[in-house]
Amino acid sequence: MDEEDSVGANKCPVCGSDPRTHPGLRFKINTKCYHRICEGCVDRHFSSGKAECPVGGCHVSLWKREWRTQTFEDLKIEREVEIRRRVTKILDRREEEFETKRDYDDFLELREELVMNLVFRTDVAATNRKLKEYAQANGIKTDPTDGPEPGAKAPRRKDMAPDAADQSGLIKGLKRIVIPEAKAPYDPFMGMPRTREYYEVKESYITRVRGKPAEAMLAGGYDFAQYMDESLLRAFAGLGVFIEDEMSARDNTAIPVPGPT
Amino acid sequence: MKFFIDDLPVLFPYPRIYPEQYAYMCDLKRTLDAGGHCVLEMPSGTGKTVSLLSLIVAYQQHYPEHRKLIYCSRTMSEIEKALAELKALMKYRSDQLGHVEDFRGLGLTSRKNLCLHPSVKREKSGAVVDARCRALTAGFVKEKKERGEDVDVCIYHDNLDLLEPHNLVPPGVFTLDGLLRYGEDHKQCPYFSARRMMSFCNVIIYSYHYLLDPKIAERVSKELSKDCIVVFDEAHNIDNVCIESLSIDLTEDSLRKATRGANNLERKIEEMKASDEEKLQNEYQKLVEGLREADEARAEDAFMSNPTLPDDLLKEAVPGNIRRAEHFVAFLKRFIEYLKTRMKVLYVIQETPPSFLSHLKELTFIERKPLRFCAERLTSLVRTLELTNIEDYQPLQEVATFATLIATYETGFLLILEPFETEQATVPNPILHFACLDASIAIKPVFERFSSVIITSGTISPLEMYPKMLNFNTVLQESYPMSLTRRSFLPMIVTRGSDQQSITSGFQSRSDPGVVRNYGALLFEFAKLTPDGIVVFFPSYLYMEMIISMWQGMGILDQIWTYKLILVETPDAQETSLALETYRTACENGKGAILLCVARGKVSEGIDFDHHFGRTVLCMGAPFQYTESRILKARLEFLRENYRIKEQDFLSFDAMRHAAQCLGRVLRGKDDYGIMVLADRRFQKKRNQLPRWIAEEIHEGQTGLSTDAAVGMAKKFLRSIAQPLVPGQKAPDGSTKGKDSWDLKELENFQREQRSNRGEGDFGRQDAYAHDYLHRETNAGSTLLHNGSRGDVNTADEFDEDIADEEFLIAERMQIELVG
Asked: Region annotation Disordered: residue ranges (chain A) (predicted)?
């Protein structure tokens, strides 16, 4: 990449055209081999499907859609950002997820370390393996084209506690995952029994009266079954109330609950 | 003379004192007693510096706290002048008291002015001197030397280590020259002597930047104690200084250099890794621990806070992803690349910091937090790598500061990208302005840290504008009128030419030949009648060039030529100083000369035209700023939204302070006299924004003049000033009022009178209307004048309607070239 920067800075390595001779010349790059060729060459070589990168000595095969315009002037940075995008997608943790700030910083450094490994092509295999393991352990989907050895199964670590936030053991200092207790659905009656003790609205009551419900019965927008229920409740609800009992019960227990009576 | 203000004995090194000086001292003392900030305006040439120094020194010596004085001025010559003044004062004090007080006063200026090293001092550029000095004097250089390595050192600097650290120079006051001489005699470095002695000084005199520029303040001024008295002299431009100190401009070139710097850093890190891994590891360990050290120091209140290093930052450790040196360099490179991509855009962009940050994160995964640590991290890295050629990393430093600032402040800053230099240009030359809009950010640490900050100048009207803009509270704001035995200057507002056409430098009519001819005629008439020098101020270089070439075409210059020599200021500093020198020679020779200069140029700010060097000053056009500038527009909007200062108010305030500054150039003392002409119809309504001492002298008859009327008045004035002064111009009742200076007895009389009028001491002054040292008639006159002028504005309103409209449009499109 260095010679590209200095010598033929603005020349297409395939057709040799130059913005000076071809005004309006635009270049495209891909994120696999980071070769930079002009738009015309991309069209020519890739219009009929997958093909090899036309730059001499490069045998990476590419689709046309993998060519895009470059964001940064420096291709090294372009590549770094691309790698960073991939790594960040996998190692995506926020500060709140860590026990201490120090742990978070360590995590940041680790991530940086991995990115740099990939950028400078040191330990690429090991780094990729780590990422892979982590991704699989945490159920993160990675781009299938990224992995060098797709299909490699990451064994689940036996020594990890089952509630550790990171099952692969790559990131340390994460807070334990606390599974919140399942909450019961909201109960508007605050635990009051809703079974009818003294009566039951039977189908026969309804069918018996069906056909001629008085208009007044349906005036409140009830359907007849509801009306029936309501009337029965009003008739019998008071039967279960024993004021004496409730008062004595309240006097005995309600001292700590001085709520409104 | 020695007198008392309340219980404070003041020794004043002159036998006579001006009444305004006395009033100024009283108010100063009140401020110091109350412990707060103040804004004081004192006419130029009435001995502001000496009264300030003599009161504060008296205050220091009399009260047991011995509060330190930090006196900040603008230019080298002003610093030198203040030091000389202080030296004379201390000599007088020791003569009077009979013993030499234990007192130190030192001035500090750049290394370039204070260097003694035989080869380094020959360097022309200040940056080179700094860099070479650092290479010879840095701490690790000395360590190397001790280890027996062969390195160059500065003998002057190393000699300092042989002396007692608190006694590098003997007590007393040293002017900059004196310090140089002392350094030469004793073979010690004057710059470092001054810097290291700063905490032992009673008075420190240096430039604003040492206190306001965060980069410098961090190194030089942070150890100053809390109870220091801080004085900003000539502070009428202080808001601009504050803003400039936090604004950063990045160009493609500087980014290229920054990249180069980053690459160099990378290489250095590699080298160090190979040779001296341990050091990097140490640094790493320290960063893991956090910037706690600095935090502790700040907690103890030892240092002043720094706008580029906010407090909360110190409490945290450096984020993990920039902890390692190589990661940090990659981080910087990524940031610079991002900036480069932004530069490629071909249309103007204005962006707030949050929007910039979110885009940055999207593209490069740089988060806000590490960005905030950028400047600090770079400093630490540079220190670890023991880099000597720091000037190579200047652009990188700038980028890092930029990163820190943009990540720290959400408001008060704006990012403006201008891809083209001018509207017409087709070749892009992008500049990324990171403009600070809020002057209070830079000065905030100063107000927070020091209990008394005094802002003073000859022209700082309207006073209430400054506390608003800089966001502080004052205990006192005061403007002092000038006490004169007779009218020694004649301010006039000329609104029409001899042909009754109104004259203005407003945009619509500025190239109107009629206006230009009228300006020419005005200059010609004054060239005829003025003895010695004339100084003419234009709103901008562009306008000046245009008008001069038109005058040439009309033959006006040829007419003037027969009376005066004509000299012109240019943006180039050397040409200008040559022009000035010629101008002075011409004035000495009797014929006199005309100096054409620009209201925001160098001449208008730092150069005095006392006595025959300036008898007439002409302001041709109101010096409004170039309002099409995006930075100015953004700032105006900011001021409106945050400080409730209307755009128009600020623009006219800014124009008038520059006009006042120009006018003040010619009157440099009470024995001086001169004519001041404001030639623009827009001055008519703005005259109450002039400093009080000028505004009160503009009587009703001196406004709205035509050229011939002004010429007539000027002639009359010059004739009257030519008469000898009648002795004993005292008020008939024998009181001391109305005199322009007092001896001791008169001063005591005045004090007695004041006491008897208003009860005991200074508290009586609070209800004091105006300054009672003025002649009663003058006071009465001035109130009349105010009433009169108010009435006049009402009647003139309909006439001025088009002016108001025009002001609303602010059609001032001339580029203001700021002289750096």
From this structure: 136-165
